[in-house]
Design a protein that fits this description.
single chain, alpha+beta, Thiol Ester Dehydrase, Chain A, nine-stranded antiparallel β-sheet, 2 helices, 9 strands, globular, binds ligand 3VV, apoptosis, Acyl-coenzyme A thioesterase THEM4
């Protein structure tokens, strides 16, 4: 995805085949009223992790616009979803992330945050993604580098089981 501003993505419909497990103790997943971001990550049949999300008023920085740190959280979470597909036996921790904020993102609208298919190189996973506004403008792009660790370094067996949620995805297709 280029860093050019005001670019509209050429979109098509993608079929959703599943959802990444989520946890109520995670800031990115927990959707309580004022508790967290509340993202749900869909997996598509062509290897993307994708998320439709209604931006919250309580996440504003400048009035009416989503805080850049919250936008970074969207990407940390959605791009991390690729690591669950690629290294399900491990946990992946973010070690680096680069974000280009091309257009401001308003609160109170439905955006889409997308992680492209990625690949593993030993313990390293590099993922790229983009955020689309309702009119398909590419507002933000991101690149992240994750490193896998033993799952037991981040979650006990009990927590790992307790945190898995197998809810059906809320939608069957997503356009991006
Ligand atoms: C299917 C079941 C799924 C279950 C699902 C459960 C439900 C969901 C539950 C929960 C949702 C969670 C959602 C999370 C999403 C957000 C993720 C975050 O926010 S992560 C927090 C922020 N990140 C950190 O705090 C990392 C801090 N860094 C570290 O702790 C270490 O650096 C670590 C563990 C990543 C690596 O340390 P070492 O001791 O294991 O390994 P060494 O030997 O130091 O490094 C290995 C290789 O990586 C490079 N490396 C290490 N650190 C690097 C860095 N910072 N930058 C670049 N390279 C680095 C090294 O040069 C080395 O490279 P060479 O293999 O030799 O080529």
């Amino acid at each position: 995805m280029s860093a050019e501003r005001n670019v509209k993505a050429e979109t098509k419909e993608h079929t959703v085949t599943g959802q990444i497990p989520w946890s109520e103790t995670c800031f990115g997943c927990n959707g309580g009223p004022n508790e967290g971001v509340g993202l749900r990550l869909a997996v598509t049949d062509d290897g993307y992790v994708a998320c439709r999300y209604f931006t919250k008023e309580c996440h504003q920085g400048f009035p009416g616009f989503v805080h850049g740190g919250i936008i970074a959280s969207y990407f940390d979470e959605v791009l991390w979803g690729q690591t669950v597909i690629l290294a399900p036996e491990a946990s992946a921790m973010t070690v680096e992330m680069n974000i280009r904020y091309l257009s401001a993102v308003k609160t109170g609208q439905e955006i889409r945050v997308i992680a492209k298919p990625a690949k593993v190189e030993g313990r390293h996973i590099y993922v790229e993604g983009f955020l689309l506004l309702p009119d398909d403008t590419v507002a933000v792009t991101a690149k992240a580098h994750y490193i896998t660790v033993k799952k037991s370094n981040t979650l006990t067996e009990h927590e790992n089981e307790r945190m898995k949620h197998g809810e059906e995805p809320a939608y069957r297709t997503i356009r991006f």
